[in-house]
Amino acid sequence: MVNGHMCCGVLKTDLVLLLTPEEAAASLRQPHTRPMDFTGKPMKSMIYVSATGTDSDKALAAWVESAVRLAWSVPEKRSALKSVGDVALLLQVWPLADQRLQS
User: Fold this and answer.
1) Coil, strand, or helix at residue 63?
2) Residue of 84, 95, 97 lying closest to 1 (CA atoms)
3) Which domains does the chain have, with CATH numbers?
4) How far apart are CA 27 and CA 48, in angstroms?
5) What's the whole-model pTM score?
6) Kind plus residue range of the DSSP H or E element containing 45
7) What local confidence, expressed as pLDDT, does residue 98 receive?
8) What are the C-alpha distances in Å from 103 to residues 6, 42, 52, 81?
9) Burial of 6 (0-12, 13-18, 19+ CB in 10 A)
10) What is the mean pLDDT of the chain?
11) Distances from the Cα of 78 to the Cαs of 36, 83, 88, 101, in angstroms?
């Protein structure tokens, strides 16, 4: 959760991402991705990335950054818990993603 919004997660060995519909459509043209169809109906903004697609630090960081960027771009949910969850995630993931993308 970032800014009170779902951002990304893991289901079994797949990375699950919430992206814009446009980013999701573009991402689905990349290897190791498929639509999220957890309910039996594909979701336009959610995708799975297989473990093979996230096997490098750089690849994982790029995927997570795209989902985090979306979560920060929309207004905060009023029910969101501040500081504890969001700050902990940012301290762990965002600097790591940024650092790995620059290397």
Assistant:
1) helix
2) 84
3) 8-102 (3.90.1150)
4) 10
5) 0.72
6) none
7) 47
8) 27, 35, 20, 33
9) middle
10) 81
11) 27, 13, 19, 32
What is the layout of strands, in order, in the sheet containing 46-49? 8-11, 14-18, 46-49, 33-35
Residues 6+ apart with CB under 8 A from 61: 96, 97, 98, 100, 101
What percent of the chain clears pLDDT 70, i.e. is strictly above it?
A: 74
Confidence class for position 87, pLDDT limits 50, 70, 90: low
Per cent of the chain over pLDDT 90 is 51
Q: In the block, which residue shows the tokens 């762990």? A: 92
CA distances to 22, 43, 62, 65 from 97, rounded to whole Å, are 22, 26, 7, 6
Identify the pLDDT of residue 90: 54
For 93, the token pair is 């993931």
